[in-house]
Structures are given as structure tokens and as C-alpha cells.
Amino acid sequence: MNLLIDIGNSFTHFAVFNGIKIIKQKHCPTGSLKELLTTLKYYSNDVKISGIGISSVVPKVEKTLSKTIRNIFKINPLTVNYKSKLPIKLKVKYPFTVGADRICNAVFGYLSQNKKTNVLVIDLGTANTYDLILKNGDFIGGIIAPGIMTSSKALKVQTAALPFIGYNKLKPNTPLIGKFTEEAIRSGLINYMKFATEGIVNAVRKQYSGKLTVILTGGSSFLLKNNVNFKYIYRENTVLEGLNFILNYQKNNSFY
User: Fold this and answer.
1) What CA–CA distance (Å, rounded) separates 71 from 207?
2) Catalytic residue from among 6, 101, 123, 131
3) For the chain, which ranges sit under pLDDT 50?
4) Does the active-site annotation cover 101?
5) pTM
6) What angle do CA 152, 156, 162 make, to 5 degrees?
């Protein structure tokens, strides 16, 4: 069994895979080192774990967890980066700048569709990423934009009077025209992301010929589910699933 760890800017997700199936899962704030280490120790009781993989966009936290893993599991974890042995090709100008989360998403998109279609993986989180993988396995790049909470925080910080709007105040199908300031901000946050995402999908379809599969994931994706004008596949754990594919590929040249 594999233990996979996705260290994101806001949250860190842990999952144990038996083959390609998640059998245990936890998450905690990336900023809480105590919770992260407690979760690691919880998984250390599982003697069946034979491999550990890490996808991280927070180098300081990744360094601490890697050291702890070597101490308590006696396993050298795989930390995904552009140098990793991958089932896809990073056909971008500066591959060393591509985040591990985007690499894992690209691997998941490519393999989950059996290499039959171009795939656009849309991950809506602290940053919104739109990554395109061609059916021949070429990851040719993508789009990175501020996530919905990043935008909300920026409005609060960069203006004198506008309030911060948290997740708890956001709902799908928000009216387009807000009738008061807070409602107008909610519309801006949600509908701006909705129309931008629809526009990006349409533009990708026009620019790249062939069938396109769209995969939607990320913490903010619930705000767009069932509320966009394109067909998509929703998956909750694309980074973890892609990381699991990569770890298995490293171990024995198979994905399962």
C-alpha cells in the first residue's frame, strides 16, 4: 500500500491507496505543523505501507515531513518534481518551474482517459490552474490565475472599505447582479470564475483539435459544479491519484 501526501498552500491531504483505491484519508491545515506530524504518526502504525510519495508546493513543510518520514517509517519518500520519472513528457519552456501538483494532475488526466483524448485539468483552489495534456502524453502548459479566496483576500487588503467574503458566505448559482455591496462581491468572485473558466474551455477547444476531456477538481470546484456550460468529469483527489500513479510507475514501471 502507498501513503500519498499532497502539501497544498492551504491544506495538506493524506491518503492510503490499496492499488488505485483510496482506503484511508485525512487532511489538516498546512500551517499547523503539530497536526501534520500527528497525522504522520497515525499512519506510521500501518505496517503495510511500502511506499510514500509527496507532492508539495510548500518546500519548508515538505522538508520537515520528509525528514520525519525517514525517521519513523524508515522509507525514503518520493518527492515529485520535473526530474521524476514520469509517464508524460513536460513539453514546456522551463520545466523546473512546474509545480508538483500540476505534474500530478497532468499524469492523472492522461492516464485516467487511457491516453485517448486531450485532457484539460481544471484545479480550483488557492490558485486556479488549467493544464492541458495532449493524448500523446505531452504536457504543453496551462493557465494560472488567482483562486477565489486569494481574490477575496486581495479585495480586502487592496481596498479601504470592501469586506472579506469567506467560503461560508459563497453559494453556487449566485445572482449575476448584486443588489448590495456584499452580494456584488459574491457575484464577482463566483461568476468571474465561472465565466473565465467557460471561456478558457471554449478557447482550448478551438485552438487544439481533437476530442477534449475536461476534469474538474479543487476545493472551490463545488461552486461551479452543475453550473457551467461544458461537460466535465468531477474528481475530488486528482493530485493524490496522479501521485499514486507516479509512485507505482517509479516502483515497477506500472501504474497499478
Assistant:
1) 49
2) 101
3) none
4) yes
5) 0.92
6) 105
